[in-house]
Design goal:
The protein contains 13 helices and 40 strands. By secondary structure, it is α+β, with helices and mostly antiparallel strands. Bound molecules: (2R,3S,4R,5S)-2-(hydroxymethyl)piperidine-3,4,5-triol.
């Protein structure tokens, strides 16, 4: 049931709160409850009107009872705001325990505070505004739970209605408060190049936990995602936050001494703060909070449902099975070797052929070419369009790799526009991978990137674009700029603008986001791109760990994965071709091996797996995901339950974490399935199981050295 006037927001009659001292205080405004499918989020303006605070965040009805977050008792040597579950705090409200917003006046004064002004509930959006009578700063706290999700979207709109400029020394997007009476258990994802999305956990009783990036992209080191649980209930209620920002960022979690963990999320202002001129305004990046009662796996499902909504209609376009030539030919691309690969790929059932790096002039290795986006006539002597036509004649969509924000010092573009790159006057530029970075916030550079991509898509028959980014920003400067600039913010804003323009003008093109693997993965990119390349590491057991982490924060339709012959970097134990295929089927299947060297038997096996994938990919894309075990456990599988509930796909892998295998008596590994009605009957080949058996005992699988992966397709009888 939903209130037609306000969407899914409910305003209750003002409840009366009793303080610990017995004082009776009615809220000044609210409370308001935003409702999702299995979540509600309730906020209120307390009687003093100095901030908006959380009442509760949890399953439906959780607000009906004393707030688990509210605290009105003594706060020795601290202020009331340091302990209150404040939704968005200035440093006047939380001077000691971490503010979300720190503003300075022209004379350097801090401690800006504000008072409640008004609240609006319109079309499912709650907007609560506060204003500072001294500076004229207004802050609208905005909330929305998109229908059909358990994710609350939050963002803040700041307006300077005063007559003097303001400087934002810190501009976080939100604070989230989570009850953790026994201390916090945090789950996060760390990584490095070729080892992204490593899921890790940490108990935090006291102190701060901080992750982030100052690289101008989300980065390999951490994912802008965090899950929080009470230490005593690791499989129970779980809260998560994720940031929609493709630049530098920070997440800080800090439990107080009273059983509440507050998580601050937002941009990291690496360029020295933001200027808010008189009359100016800024909307800070959206941060999303998800809740589930079913642990980290349940939280993953909440993120998946939400990201499917972000994809909109594009979710319903089948992600193609692709071949990418990078691992086969690297920079030594030419028409002959690409066509040789494409012919085999087409025979295997591949649908899209992507020519990776190395197709343009000056690009013989990683030292040249970036910026000069013209097909190399030596590599394509009959012309690029004739080459594409030959690919298309194989009934393959043609895809192309680009890295439009990067520039080689030896390129023509750099010779013509040396001022377009990030640089600090009179200082050397730090090359990374032998390249510099375009200052995308510069209108001319943004126009160049947009017109380059738009031109490629208009001139050539291209249906797939892989947009790469292989170096972070080092020099935070724009030569000749008279004032301090928000370079990070301008880069991200133009990146998103260009994506939006390309999507609008070339709606049929699928775009894969990549940054030396998975360094540009955040909720904003999940909305702009179709799919992420999560890592350059395609070794089977390394990849298993990467994908396991990735799927905790991202839906399968976003997971691009290739079958290759790579052994991996960290865990090089051999695995079968079947293992590699079943693994790459966990999201969007691709092939990246040098298939010219595959035997007829390997090719036949590949064709068979691709055929099977096409039969199940709708379930992989739209199905409800249950993550079973993990890469460091004896059982490791992913269950996908089709939306109609009639088909269950299970992908399972032999992690090798078994004792006595093959020598000692051992029973099969069991994969317990989730979400099945106990009295349904399920069929897999000649075997039948009750839902009860599959849930309580599990699907049996017996691993051997030759049988190290399995694809189960269970049909409801
Ligand atoms: C890094 C990407 O992650 C790879 O897949 C490949 O596209 C290379 N760049 C090409 O330079």
């Amino acid at each position: 049931m939903s209130d037609p006037a306000t969407g899914n927001i409910y305003e209750r009659a003002a409840a009366r709160n009793a303080t610990d001292a017995g004082e009776d205080t009615a809220p000044l405004a609210g409370p308001w409850t935003l409702r999702g499918v299995a979540t509600e989020y309730t906020v209120v303006v307390p009687a003093h009107g100095r901030w908006l605070e959380l009442v509760s965040w949890g399953p439906p009805g959780v607000a009906h009872g004393p707030s688990p977050a509210c605290y009105t008792g003594p706060t020795p040597f601290l202020t009331a705001g340091d302990f209150a579950p404040v939704e968005y705090a200035t440093d006047a409200v939380r001077p000691f325990t971490g503010a979300d917003l720190v503003v300075e006046t022209a004379t350097g004064d801090r401690r800006i505070s504000w008072r409640y002004q008004q609240a609006e509930t319109d079309g499912g959006q709650l907007r609560v505004t506060f204003a500072d009578p001294v500076t004229g700063l207004r802050a609208a706290h905005c909330y929305r739970i998109p229908a059909g999700t358990d994710v609350v979207e939050r963002w803040v709109e700041l307006t300077n209605t005063g007559e003097a400029p303001l400087h934002l020394a810190r501009a976080g997007s939100a604070g989230f408060c989570v009850p953790t009476p026994h201390g916090a258990r945090l789950s996060y994802q760390w990584g490095q190049w070729a080892q992204e999305f490593q899921l890790a956990h940490l108990d935090l009783g006291h102190g701060q936990f901080s992750i982030g990036s100052s690289q101008g992209v989300p980065g390999h080191s951490f994912v802008p995602w965090l899950a929080v649980q009470d230490r005593a209930e690791p499989d129970g209620p779980t809260w998560g936050v994720a940031l929609a920002w493709t630049g530098s960022w920070q997440i800080v979690a800090e439990p107080d001494t009273g059983g509440l963990t507050r998580v601050r999320v937002g941009r990291r202002l690496v360029d020295g703060g933001l200027e808010l001129p008189a009359g100016g305004g800024i909307t800070l990046p959206m941060v999303a909070g998800a809740h589930s009662d079913a642990g980290l796996a349940g939280l993953a499902r909440a993120w998946h449902r939400y990201q499917r909504q972000l994809a909109g209609d594009r979710l319903h376009r089948a992600r193609p099975v692709l071949y990418n030539s990078w691992e086969a030919t690297e920079f030594a691309v030419d028409a002959d070797n690409q066509l040789a690969l494409a012919r085999i790929a087409a025979e295997l059932g591949v649908e899209t052929f992507v020519v990776d790096d190395g197709w343009f002039i000056g690009r013989h290795d990683d030292r040249g070419g970036l910026g000069d986006w013209t097909p190399d006539p030596v590599k394509f002597p009959a012309g690029f369009d004739a080459f594409i036509a030959q690919i298309r004649a194989l009934d393959l969509t043609f895809g192309l790799w680009v890295e439009p924000e990067s520039i080689s010092p030896a390129s023509r573009l750099y010779a013509e526009h040396p001022d377009w790159v990030y640089a600090i006057d009179d200082r050397p530029i730090t090359p990374i991978r032998n390249q510099y970075l375009l200052d995308l916030g510069r209108p001319e550079a943004a126009e160049f990137v947009h017109s380059t991509l738009d031109g490629l898509l208009r001139r050539h028959d291209i249906g797939y674009l892989k947009w790469d980014f292989n170096r972070p920003r080092t020099e935070p400067g724009r030569p000749g700029a008279a004032t301090r600039l928000d370079l990070d913010g301008a880069h991200v804003a133009n990146l998103h603008r260009i994506y939006a323009a390309l999507r609008r003008d070339h709606p049929h093109v699928t775009i894969e986001a990549c940054a030396a693997g998975g360094a540009r993965t955040d909720l904003a990119m999940a909305a702009h791109a179709d799919v992420f390349w999560p890592s350059d590491n395609t070794g089977p057991l390394d990849r298993l760990a990467i994908q396991h982490g990735f799927l905790h924060a991202n839906a399968p339709h976003l997971l691009s994965s290739w079958v290759t012959d790579a052994v991996g970097l960290f865990d090089q134990r051999p695995r079968s071709l079947a293992f590699r295929f079943v693994l790459a089927m966990a999201g969007v299947l691709g092939i990246g091996a040098d298939i010219r060297h595959w035997t007829p038997r390997q090719r036949a096996e590949a064709a068979s797996w691709i055929g099977r994938y096409k039969q199940i990919r709708e379930v992989i894309t739209h199905g409800e995901v249950h993550l079973i075990g993990g890469p460091d456990q004896p059982r490791c599988a992913v269950q996908y339950t089709a939306p109609d509930g009639d088909t269950v796909v299970v992908l399972a892998w032999h992690t090798g974490r078994l004792d006595g295998h093959g020598l000692l008596p051992s029973r099969p590994v069991r994969l317990p399935l989730r979400g099945l009605a106990t009295d349904d009957t399920w069929r897999h080949g000649d075997d039948t199981y009750s839902g009860s058996h599959l849930t309580a005992v599990g699907l049996p699988v017996r691993w051997t050295a030759d049988h190290d992966a399995e694809l189960f397709v269970l049909r409801r009888a």
